[in-house]
Amino acid sequence: MPQHAGAVRRARLSEKRRTANKGKKVDLRKMLKEFDASAATSADDVKKLQSKLDKLASKGLIHKNYASNKKSQLAKRSKAKA
Known about the structure:
Structural class: mainly alpha
Strand content: under 5%
CATH class: Mainly Alpha
Shape: elongated
Number of helices: 3
Number of domains: 1
Order of helices and strands: HHH
CATH architecture: Up-down Bundle
C-alpha cells in the first residue's frame, strides 16, 4: 500500500486509467469482430474502424505497427467483399 499522499493519488489515477483503457481496447475488439462477421460493410465502417485504430495508436494504447497492420487487413478484406 502507498504511504505518501502523492503515491495514493498515483495509485488511484492509474487504476482509473487502466479501466478506461481496457474499455477502449474491448470496444476495438468488438468492432473488429463485427466487421469480420458482417458481409455487407460500407466504406464508412472501414473509415470508422481505421480512425479508431489511429486514435488508439496515437495515444499509445496499441502499437502503431499493430494499427497499421490491421488497417491494411481491413482494406484488403473490404476490397475482396466488394
